[in-house]
Amino acid sequence: MQLSKSNNNVWLINALLTTLFVVIVGIIIWGMNKGFDLSDEGLHMHLLTYPTEGGKRGGYQWFFSWMHLSILGAKTLRLLLMLLSAGVFSWGMWCWMSANDYFKDKTNVYNLLTLFAFIGIGTFVNFAQQPRTLSYNTLTLVCMQLIAGLFLYANALYKQRRALWQLAVVALSILPILYVLYEAKFTSAISMVLLLVFVQVLWLFSERPSFKGLLVWLIAGFASLVFVVMLYCFLKKTSPFELYNNLYYELWQHYNDYAQGKSPAKARHNIIYVLISYYNSSYKAIKATIFDNAVIVVLFAMVFGLHRFLKNTLAFPKNNYVYYITPLFLLAILGLYSSEIVSEKWHINGDKFNRSAFNLYLFTLGCLLASCLALVNAQAIRQFFSSHSRREIILVCFMLFMIPIGGAAGTNNPLPLQCTQQIYAWFAIFFLLTYYLTKQTEFVLPQRIWLIVISLFAFSQIYYGYVYNTFRINGSLFDQKYEIKNLPRAEGMLFDTRTKTMVQKINNLLHERTNFTEGDPIVALTYSPGLVYLLGGISPYSPYYKNESSYADRNCNNIVRASLPNIENTIVMDFNDRRIKPDLINCFLMQGIDLASDYVQIGSVPFYNGKKGRKLAIYAPKHLLKNAHQNEEEQNDKANADTNVQIDSLDVDKPEPSSEEDEIH
Fold first, then answer.
1. pLDDT by 10-residue block (mean), the chain, 665 residues
2. Closest alpha carbon to 269 in 259, 255, 282
3. Beta strands in 540-595 (DSSP E)
4. What share of residues in the chain are helix, strand, coil (percent, to 5)?
5. 3-state SS class at 600
6. Which of 646, 506, 651 has the alpha carbon at shortest distance from 578?
7. Which residue among 185, 609, 628, 642 has its CA within the 20 to 30 Å range from the CA of 257?
8. pTM of the model
């Protein structure tokens, strides 16, 4: 079928998508200096500032700690890295399309600008779901996007029979990115390697190579694997055998305890258990939102039946408007389903709604797939599987579909949530499906409407999630209006009035009542590493502290492993309506710190989340108090029994150091 001349006029969709993309980037830049989450954002800023006090939460922070990033600097770097990765991914995908015979007339329908703007919008959905500083999940997205783009570009070079050295340079450039991904989230790195190997093997077999050619590729692949392993062992100063033992340990540790019901809390950090839980959570989400209502089944039947009826029964062999009707009908169904989307708030993203955002894209993918299937016949299916260029498309779509799942590996969050954070890969599938629709019809408007509709949904999620439902801050970005004075780490940032008041009061207490200096340890038992960071403190060994029984081993492990030279100056913060666990008291004793008798409460302030009646108590060692040289009688006048640290009950035996590792990212 000949495409109409109107297909050359792609300026309109480019203008719309580019405008939407620029507006999104503008909103992100506008909100960079507004708000700071004291939990997860604070955790990542602490890791970037003090990589030695990161425990075993990955090694990604070492790549950026030399930059001495501020909060605003980390947010800017995140945006630049995501723009770079989206650009490389779009370029790699476009080069692959250029080398594939099926897309030889792509410039008549779309161009690189269309693809980049669309992929960029999908990439920035991540801003509506995560801490806005540079985190290991963001770095995972960037690395996987870069690797996928270079992988597609390398295969494009191979198809074009470019010089071997060009192919080698692109392939070798993947290795350092893969190393960074391993340090950010090793489970995602392993998943990505397995996915690429699987796709590449099928890709080679789809070309039906000679035995000699296949043998050369297998030897080259094995040699590359050995090289990567040896390089990693050299950089980590370990041996291949130790690496194998560590991987085996990560895969199977605690699994038998979990199977026997002995230690479910520890077992949930086991990768096998995590993968099983992903399957269960995603199956339940898909079943509840899609299959329970038989939406997809009915959708397929209606679209397929309508198309066949219009094309065959009404005998429109020369009237291509039949191809115009089918995708418009799909858009109408999506429009009708929008009422449920709005009622379920799928179009709103952010920390409150991100667990269901996945369903929007799953349903959209189903609609597009149904529209494509309605246009195919037996001959078209045979052509797809008989042509190498078309088999490539199926492999690439499989890879793109699996990338978000591989990126989710190794986290305790539900699979639908983690998949949506890397939804750019599904946007690439959307692009390919709409291109297929365009090739089957003479009228491209319905297919271009698909891209606009999906982009508008994504824009809505970014806008509501980034501006109004920002990740764990008080209020919206419009409420972040106030500076915190005399805090270098808060410089250039704006906060809401409650957070500003709380941080400023604590800072005043520390400097008016104690000789606290920047770099002194602070243990915030409320999981508020951002508070520690803003005050200029260091969280010993790990930013992760909670005054809860399930975290007792971790808290103790952190204190025992802490090697700060000024550990005796540790400030302790906790809610004033609860007591500190005895295990933690004993672990402090192992470091020569007696919380029970050597600490006093210097004040309390309302906690930033505004819970009624909940205040944060600040405890300081007596020797750190100002005028600590005063005689004991004067000291007792200021520090009465009510100001002592509240303790459950103190065991005389000191616990052994815990061997529990930090959770997988």
1. 48 88 96 91 89 71 86 94 96 92 73 92 90 89 95 88 81 88 84 86 71 69 75 77 70 55 51 57 59 60 67 56 66 70 73 70 79 69 72 90 84 72 93 83 71 89 89 88 90 92 92 91 89 92 81 80 85 84 81 84 80 79 76 44 54 37 35
2. 255
3. 571-575
4. 65, 5, 30
5. strand
6. 646
7. 185
8. 0.82
